[in-house]
TrEMBL record:
Gene3D superfamilies in the record: Glycogen Phosphorylase B
Organism: Macleaya cordata
Enzyme Commission number, as recorded: 2.4.1.-
InterPro entries membership: UDP_glucos_trans, UDP_glycos_trans_CS
Protein name: Glycosyltransferase
TM annotation in the entry: none
Pfam families given in the database record: UDPGT (PF00201)
Amino acid sequence: MEQKSSIPHVLIFPYPAQGHINSMLKLAELLCLSGLHVTFINTEFNYSRLLRYTDAKSRFGRFPGFRFETISDGLPEDHPRSVGFLSLNDMFDQLKTVIKPAFREMVISDRLKSDVRNQITCIIADGILGFTIDVAEELGIPSIAFRTVSACCVYAYFCLPKLVENGDIPFKDEDMDRPVKSVPEMKSFLRCRDLPSFCRVKELNDRGLQFVETETFNSTRATAQILNTFEDLEGPVLNQLRSYWRNLYTIGPLHALLKSRKSTDSSQTVSSNGLWEEDRSCMAWLDLQPLKSVVYVSFGSLTMVNREQWLEFWYGLVNSGKRFLWVRRPDSFAVEEEECQIPAELVEGTRERGYMVEWAPQEEVLVHPAIGGFLTHSGWNSTLESMVAGVPMICWPHFADQQINSRYVSEVWKMGMDMKDKCDRSTVEKLVKDMMDDKREDLMRSTIRVSEKAKRSISEGGSSFRNFEALVDFIRKRV
């Protein structure tokens, strides 16, 4: 039996938003399956939701070397943490004034040490929480920065000084289709509208832009870096990133890697890491639908839509004549649904061909035989899940990496259509019909090709499989 003193104790700390928590919990479970001890820090608010809506406590309870810890985010209980862009400034303030000192005190003290676990031997933190690197250096232990966005987005962030120097940002005019030449590897297809949303600023002193630039370059101080991607998907960009990050581990798609590691245990099912309650009735509805006949619609955990956008999407879906499963998060609407007069044709069209839930078990939905396409916000977790499932996409990005992800989906990986900055019923109707058209053999060929590459990467001997083994070895050797 391995002695306690030789078992690494890894501290994992995500940025407090669902997409970040989701992928980092999957990494935590993978590390536990590899025999490492893990402490996972959540904000108190997110931890309470995780306990309420998931099986996380029982799932991780089978690992004696694992435990959850909580930290206050300093915000009032009723603060709209998940409503998107406007609340980010609040979170930036809390990171500096509340979370940073509380994190340091927690780690420097003996609070995380126990009879089962050593003191912390390695910190894996979200790549935009640079203060964790300072704490790791103070303790003399390795720090690993985990960027939960795409590699192409991270590389665009590294190119921010060049974008400013060449006058690409701030945007000088309203021509969002103007080509951007300041990001090598993307010169042939990148437009202003495809840059990450933080670039859509009028002043260079914008807090969001400064934050992502500072934290991106700060991440180079970490001992190593992790990306939830795979070499066959973003190889050219990864080659560029390795000029900044000498010790980079690409271990994605994480959800597929975890599923493959758990496949020998027949009692294991796909588990949620979500902060909303899943409505599993949609799975029974999908069971009744024909093969590849349903468009799955979800805009993730942060996107907000107003009444006009909501109705345009709804009309487009109904007018397409296709079946649809629409996830409409309770806090995603800028107006209460009951305050809106819903046209009778939408009610009738939905009754005939649609199904709506507040939250769905997305990984399971995407691999269901009835799903033929995904209308998505292009969040990175959703994009990877769609890739592995072999489901083509219509992309309607909202913020952060989603703009550049959607351009790669349409122009590089050829897995779907990009409708960013548009929201009208005729466009939605046309793209849904195009995506679900059996004659789109080119789209399906590309989608299947990427899916096969993704699955190959996490199979034994694949790049992500090998890189994860190397990551575990890296952590073990630094005890």
